[in-house]
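Ligand: calcium ion. Inputs:
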Amino acid sequence: MAFMSGLFAIEVAILSMRALSESDFCPSRSPVKSSCPPEWQLWGSACYHLTSSKYNWDDAKTACQDVGGKMAAPRSLEELNFMAELARKVDSQYRVWIACNDKEVEGTWECDGQEGGEPFLVWGDGQPNSWRGNQDCAQITAHYNDRMDDTYCSKLFRAFCVRHAACAHLSTQPRQYCVSTDTHGRILNSTCLLDHSIREFITKGVVDCGSACATEPGCRSFNIKKTEDGKKICQLNNSTSSEDKDKFQKTDYFCTMYGEEMCSGLSFQ
Ligand SMILES: [Ca+2]
Ligand SMILES: [Ca+2]
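Predicted complex:
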């Protein structure tokens, strides 16, 4: 009965739900998550990193590019607070470069990535003061309550770098579901896992239902039920037949269960 496995194994490839544009989060309903390289911290859909070395402002920009990012400029108070918290963990008296400057026109601040609109600027008390007329680069610092200060671009500070998070698949293998069979390889058309449905809906068939299970968080197996008028119902389960054997029961209606564990459970005699 070896052919059974070939006939009834349903491969459900996990396709990315849509092309990810730069500002997108990872699709929340597919089994992927945002991830960052080591030594980068995830916030929203981006990863943040403080350089361990100190640089002047121009070299800080380059240092961020060298590690695959760009110098960060916060766009909201929430983002600024996150960055400040991260910096405080490294140094309670931190001074860190951000990608804002008024080099070109004194008093007109520009922040990288915020061109074409008002840049997000939250200054510390009495800042920006362009002390002695040549403070053209922005830091955030514990010395101004985690707010911004204009200072000399030649000073040596750590740089705040940012890059987009990667969307990593939790499972690199496509998920495969196999139909439940008895020990002789006969399909069990009237045995299903009961009382574990997390969602059910009318389906076109097994592949459709299997795709839904693959992208539903918590789905472990699924049932295909047939109604009296011939409709197929896809029932997504939060458990498996081996985890809850008592609920893997005979039904008085057409019902077939598919699970990942069934694939290894086929006997070839
Ligand atoms: Ca200035
Ligand atoms: Ca200043």
